[in-house]
Amino acid sequence: MAHSAQSLILASTSPQRLALLQSHGFNPKVRQPNVDETPFPQENADALVERLALAKLTDVVNNHETGLAADTVVAINNEVFGKPLLPARATEMLKLLSGQTHQVFGGLVVSHRGRKVSRVIRTSITFRKVSDDEISTYVKTGEPLDKAGGYAIQGGAAHFVKSIDGCRENVVGLSIPAVLSALNALGIYFSD
Fold it and tell me: Which of 25, 33, 95, 111 has the most CB atoms lying inside 10 A of its own CB?
């Protein structure tokens, strides 16, 4: 069933997610969910991003609408990093990621007429060794504070990345191939 690219509701105010969707021909209506993103005790990254994406979707998308919600976290050595919010926490996160490989988990849920399909996408990122001065300079820009793991791969942290294994868009905030797969699983095909 073909749908207009205008009829998708994006349950997120992330400018990165909106830009990714727009760059692939979508023009979603944006709604801001109000969801507590605190992880449950012992909750792993896969379960966390899937739970939060579903909570965001449920918060602002009605059953009769077609909606999309997503969540992203970074994990290394069984420690999950959400948004640092404070410069000291961003600095701490970046020091732990420096010279290491970590995983970025992207959870997404798509709904249509009460039916839901979810996906969890994992991308491995390896950072080169990043100096304390580079981290300090980057944190002072303010960019890391509202980004999962304390960095934006499409922004000032691009030069920290040594290698990417998996979907780069997932690291930015939304895997478009996974979105299309979820939509197709619900029998939805968008047209302009």
Answer: 111
| Domain 2-191 CATH (choose: 2.60.40.3360, 1.20.1560.10, 3.30.450.40, 3.90.950.10) | 3.90.950.10
Considering the chain, what is the average pLDDT of its residues?
93
Give me the pLDDT at residue 177, please. Answer: 95
The answer to whether the predicted template modeling score (pTM) of the entire model surpasses 0.70 is yes
Is 71 tagged catalytic?
yes
Residue ranges covered by each domain of the chain:
2-191
Dump strand ranges (E) for the chain.
2-4, 8-11, 29-31, 66-76, 79-81, 101-112, 115-127, 161-165, 189-191
Please check the confidence at residue 178 and state whether its pLDDT lies above 50: yes
